[in-house]
C-alpha cells in the first residue's frame, strides 16, 4: 500500500544537532533556558534588595525616564517567573513524554522568532534607526565611539548578518522542539495497531493490554457425576 505523506514530512527527523535525539535536545534546551532565566531572576531580586547598586541616573541614560523603577522591576520579575515555569514544563514534558507540556515553550519560540524577524525588517526598511539608537546611548557606553565611526552601510550589513544567523539558529531549535513534540505524540498514539487485510480494508485493533481484550471467559459448569 502506498503511504500518503505530508509535505512537511521531509523535515521530520529524530536527531538534534546530529549528535543526540530530539527528546534529549529538548531537555538540554529547556534546562539551558531555565538556567538563563534563573540567573536573570537572581539579578532582578538582588537589584530589589539593593537598588543603589543598579541605579542609573537620567544623565547617564541620556533621557528623561527612570530605569529599574518599581513598575519595570515587577514586570521583569513576572516575565522571569513565567519563563522559568514554561522552561520547566518543557523539560518535564520531554522527560516524562507528555507532549502537551511542550506546547507553551514552542509558542514562546515562535513569538521570539517573530519578534526578531520584525527587528530585522525594521532595520532593513529604516536603516537610519541604528544611528539614532547609537546616539541615544550613554556617553560612557563601551565602544560607542568605535561603533559610530564604522561606515553606516557596513554596520547595517554586519547587524543584518548577525540577526540572520541568529534567526537561522532559532529556526533550527524550533524544528527540534517540534520534532520532539511529534515524536512523543506519535509514540503515545502507537498503542493502536492497524491491521491491513488482503482487500485493502483497515481494521483497528485494540491495545494489547486492553482489559476487554484479555478478559477471561466464564469457567465451564462443574462436572456432576450421574
TrEMBL record:
Originating organism: Podarcis lilfordi (Lilford's wall lizard)
Segments crossing the lipid bilayer: 27-48, 75-95, 102-127, 147-169
Keywords, alphabetical: Cell membrane, Cell projection, Endosome, Lysosome, Membrane, Transmembrane, Transmembrane helix, Transport, Ubl conjugation
Topology class, membrane: Multi-pass membrane protein
Cited Pfam families: Mtp
Recorded GO CC terms: cell projection; lysosomal membrane; multivesicular body membrane; plasma membrane
Quaternary structure note: Homooligomer; upon reaching the lysosomes. Interacts with MCOLN1. Interacts with NEDD4; may play a role in the lysosomal sorting of LAPTM4B; enhances HGS association with NEDD4; mediates inhibition of EGFR degradation. Interacts with PIP5K1C; promotes SNX5 association with LAPTM4B; kinase activity of PIP5K1C is required; interaction is regulated by phosphatidylinositol 4,5-bisphosphate generated by PIP5K1C. Interacts with HGS; promotes HGS ubiquitination. Interacts with SNX5.
The protein's name in its UniProt record: Lysosomal-associated transmembrane protein 4B
Amino acid at each position: 500500500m502506498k503511504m500518503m505523506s505530508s509535505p512537511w514530512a521531509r523535515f521530520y527527523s529524530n536527531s538534534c544537532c546530529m549528535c543526540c535525539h530530539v527528546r534529549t535536545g529538548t531537555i538540554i534546551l529547556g534546562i539551558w533556558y531555565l538556567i538563563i532565566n534563573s540567573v536573570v531572576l537572581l539579578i532582578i531580586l538582588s537589584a530589589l534588595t539593593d537598588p543603589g547598586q543598579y541605579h542609573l541616573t537620567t544623565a547617564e541614560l541620556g533621557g528623561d525616564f527612570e530605569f529599574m523603577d518599581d513598575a519595570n522591576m515587577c514586570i521583569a520579575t513576572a516575565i522571569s517567573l513565567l519563563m522559568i515555569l514554561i522552561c520547566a514544563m518543557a523539560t518535564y514534558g520531554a522527560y516524562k513524554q507528555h507532549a502537551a507540556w511542550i506546547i507553551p515553550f514552542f509558542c514562546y519560540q515562535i513569538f521570539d522568532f517573530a519578534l526578531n524577524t520584525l527587528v530585522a525588517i525594521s532595520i532593513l526598511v529604516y536603516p537610519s534607526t541604528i544611528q539614532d539608537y547609537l546616539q541615544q546611548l550613554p556617553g560612557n557606553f563601551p565602544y560607542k565611539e568605535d561603533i559610530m565611526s564604522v561606515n553606516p552601510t557596513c554596520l547595517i550589513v554586519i547587524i543584518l548578518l548577525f540577526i540572520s544567523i541568529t534567526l537561522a539558529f532559532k529556526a533550527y531549535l524550533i524544528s527540534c522542539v517540534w520534532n520532539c513534540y511529534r515524536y512523543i505524540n506519535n509514540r503515545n498514539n502507537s498503542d493502536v495497531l492497524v491491521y491491513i487485510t488482503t482487500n485493502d480494508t483497515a481494521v483497528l485493533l485494540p491495545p494489547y493490554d486492553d482489559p476487554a481484550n484479555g478478559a477471561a471467559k466464564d469457567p465451564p459448569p462443574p462436572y456432576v457425576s450421574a
